[in-house]
Amino acid sequence: MTQRQGGETMQSLMQTGQISGSLSFSGVLSKEDEEMSRSALSNFRAKEEEIEKKKLEVKEKVQAQLGRIEQETRRLAVIRQELEALSDPMKKDVSVVRKKIDTVNKELKPLVQTCQKKEREYKEALEAFNEKNREKVQLITRLMELVGESEKLRLKKLEELSKSIETLQ
Fold first, then answer.
1. What is the per-residue burial (b if ≥16 Cβ within 10 Å, else e) of 88-124?
2. Contact 35/56 with Cβ under 8 angstroms?
């Protein structure tokens, strides 16, 4: 105990009336004061012992808790090892499948590009085909118009010739 704590304890005892604090003129404690002093000292020691006992109890409880924590830590380590052992075969299978997926992805990439290129070429060819088809339809329509006009003209000419022949007769 520090000097300050000792002084505080004495002051506390004086305030509670356990030590009168009166010194005889000669500087020697009276028997009553000496008895109170011993009583206070014995109370102080008893409280110190009680504190030490409680301190030991708390220390034992902490040690018991630490022991349980160590046991639980060991149990958790065993459980973790069992989990890792369980996941190990799956890890290998998963790894193999992932590698296969990566390989297929690498093979797919140029195929996708080729497919997209062919798709663009197909669209361009289809567009060209449709354009030529529209042009063909327009030409056929124009041909039909021309043929129709030609037939009308020929019929008209034939009628004129026929009339001319009839007028000749």
1. eeeeeeeeeeeeeeeeeeeeeeeeeeeeeeeeeeeee
2. no
How far is Cα 64 from Cα 157, in angstroms, rounded to an integer? 129
Per-residue confidence (pLDDT) for residue 27, from 0 to 100:
52
Q: Which two tokens stand for residue 4?
A: 């300050």
Closest CA to 19 of 49, 46, 41: 41
Alpha-carbon distances of 69 from 55, 72, 78, 94, 107, rounded to whole Å:
21, 5, 14, 36, 54
Distance CA 118, CA 124 (A): 10
Residue 29's CB: how many other CB atoms inside 10 A? 16
In this prediction, the residues of the chain whose per-residue pLDDT falls under 50 are 2-4, 13, 18-25
Provide the residue ranges of all domains of the chain, joining segments of one domain with +.
29-168
User: Residue 36 and residue 14: Cα distance in Å, rounded?
Assistant: 10
Q: What length is written for the chain?
A: 169
d(CA 83, CA 49): 50
Q: Please report where in the chains the tokens 């000097």 appear, as a residue.
A: 3
